[in-house]
């Protein structure tokens, strides 16, 4: 029946593109099973400055974060990504992919789970291999200083 799940589990999440962007970013920073301080800081920076999240008031934002955390605990980052990626419009897919790669590199290392999730994200967003390689190369160059 799912009485509790329907009331507190966010079973309809995501409902729109801003929520989906939030979910993708959350899945990326949680891909390796932990969220480092660097990843959390970068996520908050993006959440506060990205136009893709729209004007989201503070309380709904934190409610969506909690919903994402609940899905992550129950189903994992891949499931959250699968729920969210289809709602991302074509025009935002490339930017979201680049920012996701940047989040993965934020703590200075790329775990196998993170790399695998980025590959799933590439496929889910229908991005070609040439663009994905270029995006990863750009992000690696950014962190090579």
Could you walk me through the main structural features you see in this protein, from its secondary elements to its overall organization?
The protein is mostly helical and 145 residues long. The chain has a single domain (15-142), classed as TerB-like (Orthogonal Bundle). It contains 8 helices and no strands. The chain has helices at 3-8, 17-29, 37-49, 58-75, 77-84, 90-105, 112-124, 129-142. Helix 2 packs antiparallel against helix 3 (37-49) and helix 5 (77-84) runs parallel beside helix 7 (112-124). The longest helix has 18 residues, at 58-75. It is globular, with a radius of gyration of 15 Å. The protein starts with a helix and ends with a helix. The relative contact order is 0.17.
Q: What's the layout of helices and strands?
A:
Layout: H1 3-8, H2 17-29, H3 37-49, H4 58-75, H5 77-84, H6 90-105, H7 112-124, H8 129-142
Write a short abstract of this structure.
With 145 residues, this protein is an all-alpha fold. The chain contains eight helices and no strands.
Q: Into which percentage range does the β-strand content fall?
A: under 5%
| Sheet with most strands | none
Number of domains: 1
- Can you identify the CATH superfamily? TerB-like
Q: Examine the secondary-structure arrangement and name the CATH architecture.
A: Orthogonal Bundle
Q: Would you tell me the overall average pLDDT?
A: 90
**Number of contiguous helices:** 8
Question: Low-confidence parts lasting 5 or more residues at pLDDT below 50?
Answer: none
Q: Into which percent range does the helicity of residues fall?
A: 55-70%
List the helices and strands in order. HHHHHHHH
- Class of secondary structure makeup: mainly alpha
Rg, Å, rounded? 15 Å
User: What is the rounded distance between the termini?
Assistant: 54 Å
């Amino acid at each position: 029946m799912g009485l509790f799940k329907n009331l507190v589990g966010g079973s309809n999440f995501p409902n729109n593109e801003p929520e989906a962007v939030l979910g993708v970013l959350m899945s990326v920073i949680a891909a390796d099973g932990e969220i480092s301080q660097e990843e959390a800081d970068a996520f908050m920076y993006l959440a506060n400055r990205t136009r893709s999240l729209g004007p989201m008031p503070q309380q709904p934002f934190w409610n969506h974060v909690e919903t994402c955390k609940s899905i992550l605990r129950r189903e994992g980052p891949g499931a959250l990504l699968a729920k969210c990626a289809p709602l991302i419009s074509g025009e935002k897919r490339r930017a979201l992919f680049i920012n996701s790669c940047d989040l993965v590199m934020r703590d200075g290392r790329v775990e196998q789970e993170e790399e695998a999730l980025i590959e799933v994200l590439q496929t889910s967003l229908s991005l070609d291999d040439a663009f994905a390689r270029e995006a990863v190369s750009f992000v690696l160059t950014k962190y090579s200083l």
